[in-house]
Every structure is written in structure tokens, then in C-alpha cells.
């Protein structure tokens, strides 16, 4: 049986047991993650002025209930998939922590300053923050944790619930890849609210939408 030493937690305890990522094709996890993020980038036209929020349960990717079998290896595979797309398009990423940290988010300090986010003091680890946030914190150049964001788009891997960190109005985007590992995948872009009532006009004289072509209604 494959065994691993668990990540050192806040209490310092170590435990041996079956690796939660045993049987998970990590290369496939990276490929699928990259494909999902590429599709959302195209749908939402994400670029340097945009923020993407990602929630991920590595337990769910491994086919286990959320919060029960976190895997740093799975988290690293997902990180690589997201980074491959982010490097090409330059958008910012916020990685959602687990409920223990009130779903705070790990971002680069540059991102915090760019979007005027509020920093909180905590260092994520697998038992308080989650494996995904832990890997993000370890791999970022200058990581900080912020209390909340208002992201332009989001990816949810494993039904972690990211809606509290999306701008209104969220518009579902259906990925061609519906699962990463065994985790259900959902994602959304956002659009500005339509305001003004029955006399309002929502298109310019040339037919263009003020918010851009990506803001079509698909619901």
C-alpha cells in the first residue's frame, strides 16, 4: 500500500496512512484544469485588469468527501494547470481557503494592492486553510491572505462554493470538462448590472454593448 507522511499541522502531529492521491492521474488533473481555465478565460476575456477566484477541494478530486483527505500533490497539479494559463494572459488569481479561515483568499501582494483588498494575518496550512491554499501560499512570490474579493470570474472544483467572492451578476459558463479527477467542476463569469428600467438603453448606437461582447446573456 502506498503511504505518505502527512503535512506538519499546527499541532505538530504526524500521521501515517494511505496517500489520498493514490490512483489519481496528476498529469491528467493538470491538463483538465488548464482546459477549464482556458475556456473561462476565453468566455470572460480575462486579462491583466481582471481577478479570477478559484475554490478547490483536493479531497473531492480524489473521490473523498470535502475536507477529509486533502492532498498537496493534487493541489500542486491544479496550481500548474492554472499557472499555465495565467502566465499567458496576465490575469490575477485568488485562491480560496477553507471554512476554517472563513474562506479568506491567498493572493500576491501585488494583487492585493492592485484591487484594494484587505489583508488579514494567517498562514494557511492543510488543516486550516486547505491543501490548495497551502500550495498557493508556498509557491507565490510574495503571498498575502485577504478577507474577501470581488472577482470577475471563478472556477469551483469540488463544490466548495465561491459565490461570496464573485461580483454581481454571475453568469454560468458550462465547461467542456465537467470533472477534474472525481470533483464536479462549475465556473462563471460576471457582468455589470443592467439598470434604469423600461426607458433604459443597453446598447450603443453602433450596436456594441458597453461592457463588451463577452457580456451576452446566456442564462
Broad structural category: alpha+beta
Number of strands: 11
**Largest β-sheet summary:** 9 strands, mixed
Which residues form runs of ≥5 with pLDDT under 50? 1-16
Proportion in β-strands: 15-25%
Q: Radius of gyration, Cα only, in angstroms?
A: 18 Å
What is the global morphology?
globular
On the 0 to 100 scale, the average pLDDT is 90
The percentage helix is 25-40%
Describe the structure.
- With 219 residues, this protein is an alpha+beta fold.
- Helices cover 26% and strands 21% of the residues.
- The chain has five helices and eleven strands.
- A hairpin with an 8-residue loop joins strand 4 (92-96) and strand 5 (105-108).
- The model is unreliable at 1-16 (pLDDT under 50).
Quick recap of the structure?
Helix content is 26%, strand content 21%. It contains 5 helices and 11 strands.
Layout of helices and strands:
Layout: E1 3-5, E2 16-18, H1 26-44, E3 51-56, H2 58-61, H3 72-89, E4 92-96, E5 105-108, H4 109-115, E6 119-120, H5 131-139, E7 143-146, E8 153-157, E9 170-173, E10 179-180, E11 183-190
Parallel strand pairs: 3-4, 3-8
Antiparallel strand pairs: 1-2, 4-5, 5-7, 6-7, 8-11, 9-11, 10-11
Helix pairs in contact: 1-3, 3-5
